[in-house]
């Protein structure tokens, strides 16, 4: 093919494809007065890949692994090798096109591997990430409580309680006590009102004779049922 003609109105003809294109569509080259090379970017990429494959074959004696074409709206997961729609990839602001590199199943598996490799397990990762302490500190705090829930005294509590405003760890509670504080929004005033409410609406059993009890009526409320 003949050499490219002189630039015309900010355009140039590519040596390979022969098309006239704007200079911005050509790769940068310090050897040309205009600062642009003789090949448009797509043709330059084809030439560059062919040169790389040739050098790889001459030096190592092996071919370049070619990846299959990916249709629009899809992406190929490099881990499982499957081509899937973009909806099957997790969102990632820093990723190409706003999606992660690996599909969701592979992404989850890699996340589990990372947690196991870096933290020894998911629980250690969860404690470190959310509360700033590890399993060792958890067990030390539980031992200080005597191995029971800090509120009800139940055995084997597994929930780390923390102040939602400051993030400071307060103690270790059972599921019900931890959930109860959350439902009352960690408010002493709400809890005090709840105690007052229970005292004013709960029927009390009073011992009036050895082995004989009498139900005392609260200030308000209905009488207890037969099963009470």
Architecture overview:
The chain has about 230 residues and is of the alpha+beta class. Among the domains are: about 10-60, no CATH class; about 75-120, no CATH class; about 140-195, His-Me finger endonuclease fold. Helices cover about 35% and strands about 20% of the residues. The protein is built from six helices and ten strands, in the order ββββαββαααββααββ. It has helices at about 40-60, 105-120, 120-130, 135-145, 175-185, 190-200, and strands at about 10-15, 20, 25-30, 35-40, 75, 85, 160, 170-175, 205-210, 210-215. Strands 1-2 form a two-stranded antiparallel ribbon. A two-stranded antiparallel ribbon has the order 3-4. It has a two-stranded antiparallel sheet with strand order 5-6. β7 (about 160) and β8 (about 170-175) form a beta hairpin. The longest helix is centred in the first third of the chain and has 20 residues, at about 40-60. Residues about 1-5 have low confidence and may be disordered. Pfam families: Endonuclease_7 (PF02945). This is Recombinase. InterPro entries: Endonuclease_7, Endonuclease_7_sf, His-Me_finger_sf.
Structure in a nutshell:
This is Recombinase. With 228 residues, this protein is α+β, with helices and mostly antiparallel strands.
